[in-house]
Amino acid sequence: MRLAVLASGRGSNLQAIMQSISRGRLAARVALVLSNVPDAPALGLAEAAGVPVWAKDHRKFSSRARFDAGMLEAMAAARVDAVALAGYMRLLSPAFLNAYPGRVLNVHPSLLPAFTGADGAGDTLAYGAKFAGCSVHIVEEAVDAGPVIIQAAVAVRDNETKESLMPRIHALEHRIYPQALHWLATGKLRLRGRVVHLPPAEYGEMSPHSAPSMPLPDGCLVNPPLDPGF
Length: 230
Ligand code: GRF
Prior knowledge:
Elements: E1 2-6, H1 12-22, E2 29-35, H2 41-48, E3 53-55, H3 64-77, E4 82-85, H4 94-99, E5 104-108, H5 120-127, E6 131-138, E7 148-155, H6 162-185, E8 190-192, E9 195-197, E10 220-223
Helix pairs in contact: 1-6
5-O-phosphono-beta-D-ribofuranosylamine binds at residues 7, 9-13, 42, 86-87, 107-109, 134, 173.
């Protein structure tokens, strides 16, 4: 799978994706990293890994459609066949999503459908919910609304702050996102209505192989379970 990663910020999920590929777990190659923020730290990570980048300030384009058309052109030239949003802080146009139907994924720092929007984890804490977490989902036009592939739940501690919570959420994002992309790359994702299914062998069979090789931190749950190595 030739993957484009779209990032506007620090790029820790991009890094996790590239690591999972170099460790031979995620069956993909990052063909291109794109950004609307020309000095985003994520671009430095891509360049250090020898991955081509396309970075342009979206404010210099007359419309979202034109900016997205520029990305689509670069992605076609790089023969991209799937897209991972990794802290990409802009909406995508219908034309962009239609070019990769069911093949644009996003990671969001809340247990969807709760707490959509720019501050999923902060909103979870402010609400007083007792579980926070993260979700990987297929991207649709409505914000943070597409079918969920995998989620990780994190128990909220007493006196939790965003500073104390975020590292636990990020650590889980870095495990569930490469896993979801691997399922996409290996053709495992099936949609029935808006429900994502995996083949039975992939989904929670209690065999020695269903245990993740690295244990989850205390108070965390991942479902569907991670494949070995994720
Ligand atoms: C992550 O928390 C992700 O859930 C959200 O944006 C953040 C990106 O972080 N969509 P990074 O740039 O990958 O470190």
